[in-house]
Amino acid sequence: MISKKKIATMGLAALMLTLPLAACGSNNETTNNKPANNAANSGGTNTDTATNTNNANTGGETTDAGTKLTGDFEIQYFVGGYGDAWWKKVIADFQAANPDLKIKAMGGAKINEQNKPRWIAGNPPDFVYIDGPELNDRQLVEDGQLEDLTGWLETATNVDGDKILDILAQAPQQYDGKVYNIPLVLNSWGIFWDKALFAEKGWTEPTDYQSFLDVSAKIKDAGITPFIHTGKYPYYINGAFLFPAIVSANNNDYTVLQDMAANKVEAYESPAVMTALNKIVELRDKGFIDKGSVQINHTDSQMLFLQHKDAFIANGLWLPNEMSKDVPEGFEFGFIPSLAQDNGGKVVANTSTATVAIAKNAKNKEAAKAFLQFIFSKAQASQWAELSGAPSNIKGDISASNAPSHVKDAAKFLTDANTVVIPTITYNADVDKAMQDASAALAAGTIEPADWVKRVTDAVKKAAQ
Amino acid sequence: MNSGTAKLQRTIFIASFIVPTLLFFGVFTIYPTLQALYYSFFDWSGMSQHKEFIGLDNFVNLFKDPIIWRAIGNDYFLVLGKIIGIMILATFFAVALTRFNFKLASFFRSTFFIPNIISVVVIGVLWNFIYNPQIGFLNSFLSLFTKEQVTITWLGFQHHTIWMLLPPAIWAGIGFYMLLLIAAIQNIPESYYEAASLEGSSQWHQFWTITLPLIWEQMKVSILNIMMTTLNGSFVIVWIMTEGGPDNTTQVMGSYLYQMAFRQYHFGFASAIGVLILVLSLVTTVILQRLMRQETVELG
């Protein structure tokens, strides 16, 4: 009896001890199933992770003059608003063209966080698409995580033999004269309205700052709030109104923004910045800015705009796509990249982009470069526009492609000779936050332009230390 | 069988319960805490391979940062507001549902508990709709009594916006503490109240002299628990509703930590905030326990 009881007790004890350990063991096993990943990579649990194995396509053409790519090649891509249809397609195409290469694609909405331990440990994927949260190109450059592409890009040609730098619609951002990442997407911030509503009410669609003010006064009299922005995320009003306004006030010279991004205090103190800030103040003091803006997020502001509670919204060209399910019947998007220019002045398009880069610690840089040559081609450009719903950063006529019509319109706008296109600029994250907080406060009436400049230059001085 | 093996058996048996727990506690609590303490001495972006040791600089910068002081203030405002709000309402409901026999008691008990089974994220989104200036419930309700449409931006005040986060936080917390107190009240023998009634004591008097002293132990636990969960977890509701905005007016330590670590890439600095949260939680727990030290009344 006693011994049976004893055995039972010991058995229970042993079970208690081993159960949690067994759970650990099985976890380890799943992680270890992923080849070539270090244990810190939690990619094993990500359902979006797609592993493209060699699909033995013999019909593929080799990318470059006879060089055969071999070994492992890892691609990290964030899946967000642009989806992953294009990535899956282009990776399959690249695989077909390079049957001996073992491509491993790591994609997903959480991939930036999942792969972070690998970047920290110096074992990053070879190729990275920089988009989404927790991945910032300027920070990656400052952390020394990206390969310097300056020299290579000077002569690099794509698979069709075109020089890559020549076919880019917007040039890559330079960090101290060096290039580390290349913009893949060409999207634009701007101001939207409903053409149908304007036609119905007899309002004139604005083309410059003065006509914007004039029609806003009429809209306000009609009982509709003229302008809404996404105050919870003030980068919307910065991207769609403030930054283009600064460029307009600077004689269409966007280098002022690049100087701002390079943490030059005097750029923030330039008269152009003050002129632009005063335009926000003018809109605010005339009561054109929806007072609710300060607390609402993008979805709410977009809904209010679609419901005609507000006539204009500061947003970006992805808006029609993003809200496609909620657009009321008869709603017709009117769009202009900027509304702060003088009468007859050029339209200023502040681009919004996502870039691609090669990791400094990449193990297969050759394949990564070949992949860059592969994706920056006209064929992939129209495929991108078609599958992601956004214009690609490659010049070229996509009017014949299957891309959605608003994408074609946008592409036309952005390649127009009369549009000043601001190339992609990433600000220091601290300065960017200071600008956002200050702009929200300025639009809400808490502070004045001089306070804006003071706050932001303080942040710049601190960040430059 | 000799006492030696019995002792060994006993030890093994106890160890089989303690060791796994200790292991998990070590791996998931002690190790990350030490890790955070370690990172707080470095200038590190959170993504770089290189960390620069800077000693206590992160802490020095932390105390020079005006936003952290506002965050601490907001955190303690929420602690105080939630303790007062939740304890008063939870006690009131608990007494109402146990001491006054009315038919719908169990229905109300379930109803008041509902916010506890809803995710805080959902609560945040829900209250965002209540506070929405144009299509929100609160403004629509107030508009019933005014000629003009009310368009107050409840989450967009220049100061004190943190007040607006108190109602959802209290609303979400009541149910759990109410149940805790109901259990405590139900443990009080009915004869105490009968005796008091016979002596002609009023309900109010019975509450002060019987109920309150006998549930004080549970109230103490509740207050400590509200304080700790607020200092460590107010992040969620803040992040869902305002992300610390507008203009950092609703920043709490947790949201500022997240902002610094993952939006502004100062992981070392964020770790220093984490250490600060830990220290403040510990200190506040000790102080509160001292303040509430009162002889526990036990059932005779």
TrEMBL record, chain A:
Domain of life of the organism encoding this protein: Bacteria
Determine if tRNA-binding is one of this entry's keywords: no
Question: InterPro entries given for it?
Answer: Bact_solute-bd_prot1 (IPR050490), SBP (IPR006059)
Give the UniProt keywords, A-Z: Signal, Transport
Alphabetical GO CC annotations of the entry are:
cell envelope
| Intracellular or extracellular location(s) | Cell envelope
Q: Where is this region: Disordered?
A: 30-66
Signal peptide annotation: 1-23
* Pfam families, per the entry: SBP_bac_1 (PF01547)
Q: Which family does it belong to?
A: Belongs to the bacterial solute-binding protein 1 family.
Q: Name the chain's protein.
A: N-acetylglucosamine transport system substrate-binding protein
From TrEMBL, chain B:
The protein's UniProt keywords, in alphabetical order, are: Cell membrane, Membrane, Transmembrane, Transmembrane helix, Transport
Task: Please report the stretch or stretches of sequence annotated as the ABC transmembrane type-1 domain.
Answer: 72-288
Presence of the UniProt keyword Ribonucleoprotein in the record: no
**InterPro entries registered for this protein in UniProt:** ABC_transporter_permease (IPR051393), MetI-like (IPR000515), MetI-like_sf (IPR035906)
**Record's bilayer topology term:** Multi-pass membrane protein
> SUPFAM superfamilies in the record, alphabetically?
MetI-like (SSF161098)
Do the record's keywords include Glycoprotein? no
Q: Which Gene3D superfamilies match?
A: MetI-like
Read off the Pfam families from this record.
Answer: BPD_transp_1
Its GO CC terms are: plasma membrane
Q: What is its main location?
A: membrane
Which family is this sequence assigned to?
A: Belongs to the binding-protein-dependent transport system permease family.
Official protein name in the record: N-acetylglucosamine transport system permease protein
Q: Which organism is it from?
A: Paenibacillus phyllosphaerae
Traced from the root, the source organism's taxonomic lineage reads: Bacteria, Bacillati, Bacillota, Bacilli, Bacillales
